[in-house]
């Protein structure tokens, strides 16, 4: 299967999950709006979800896969099984201890890390009466939801390791599609809430238990896939070994580097807890933004590392350079037009997805403004997924860790400086600017060391991609004005759907026509991609 086809396999599975994630967010927005229960759930879910993104979407694999692949090559499956059992046993014990301690001290964690703004919350009598919930209640339900969902962290961390084993055997699909279980379960919970007309607090509690159930189900799914692949791990007394030490040396900075997007969002939500509703605004804007990021960025991050590591270990340096350049080309080809579209038409997108029930027109404008700012950072966060494997495949985690630390510091400083001026939009700007800083520093580090040489084809196609996307943006601006009556406030859902379909279809036709006509896209890459997908379907 070609590199592009592998990207499409993981990206397609991730897209499947994200589409149902949209359905989940639409139902949640209608049920909870941006009220205190929505804030409490989003704050509680962000903490374990941070670790899901850190581990399950490539960061743990960045350290585990090269070591596991080496054991597989040197000691065969038996040596690889011993290594995996050793790591799994230690991971299981450590995660169990962390979970128990965190659940005991959850009130302290909520006050100091998850939602420090709740500690300084002052009741507004009119708001509290209207929502039937006080600052003390907001704090109490945030603690309760956090305790219920925290074990999800342990499930996702162990899932990450099993996914790494599957990826090392080039079995990408099960790990990519497993997150869909979370969406299915939460959609079921929300559907029950609508049917029973359950109170918001009860819906929030049931959703929290749904997250925990989904974590167990996802771990079971990838474990079964691993056994089908003919591999298994067991549980034994953990020991401090050279293998474990090496994994920790690589995994700790890799987790920080790979999860910079989520770290930035987590920091942003913690700061946003000082303003009621801001946490939910950021969360709802994050969902449309995560669709292209997940489809392209996660796919590239998962597939590129093992491909690059194999080329480097075999001494095929030219092949490694080619793989890096084509991955960057593929990333730009898909993310630049997505960023342009999300920046130009955020209001119609948010209105169609969310504006119903407890989600009001005024909220649409707030969320759309944040989405437009996030869109400007979309290419940066995908580029981070492209540049990071260039370090990980060479077992260099120190340099990107320093870069990520600088980016995280910039994000915190900018968030604090801009939040009290621009509210949630200030946090979105901080996230976007920090992402571009991270991507630029990672690339410059590779270039200076001679580990990445931009070939002429990439430079030419990248410039043409930007030009094609800009012209597509002009077409979108014109078309949106013509369809204003069908996309504005008060327009019916059928009209909104038709208008969005027209906007998306025209944008895609214009963009792909321009890229093919100008040579911005590698036609042979498209042919290999289509050929790989046909073979996969036939199989």
What does this structure look like?
The protein is an all-alpha fold. The protein has two domains: 19-454, no CATH class; 457-539, no CATH class. Helices cover 85% and strands 0% of the residues. It has 21 helices and no strands. The chain has helices at 3-32, 36-104, 106-114, 125-131, 135-149, 151-168, 173-177, 180-196, 200-228, 242-258, 260-272, 278-313, 317-344, 346-354, 361-392, 398-422, 424-448, 456-482, 484-487, 493-518, 523-538. α11 (260-272) runs antiparallel to α12 (278-313), α12 (278-313) packs antiparallel against α13 and α14 crosses α15. The termini are close together.
List its salient traits.
disordered C terminus; 21 helices; globular; mainly alpha; 539 residues
Gross morphology: globular
Distance between the termini: 12 Å
* Biggest beta sheet summary: none
Give the low-pLDDT segments.
Answer: 126-131, 532-539
Oligomer: single chain
Mean pLDDT over the residues? 80
Blueprint of the fold:
Blueprint: H1 3-32, H2 36-104, H3 106-114, H4 125-131, H5 135-149, H6 151-168, H7 173-177, H8 180-196, H9 200-228, H10 242-258, H11 260-272, H12 278-313, H13 317-344, H14 346-354, H15 361-392, H16 398-422, H17 424-448, H18 456-482, H19 484-487, H20 493-518, H21 523-538
Helix pairs in contact: 1-8, 1-12, 1-21, 2-3, 2-5, 2-6, 2-9, 2-10, 2-11, 2-12, 3-5, 5-9, 6-9, 8-9, 10-15, 10-16, 11-12, 11-16, 11-17, 12-13, 12-15, 13-15, 13-18, 14-15, 14-20, 15-17, 16-17, 18-20
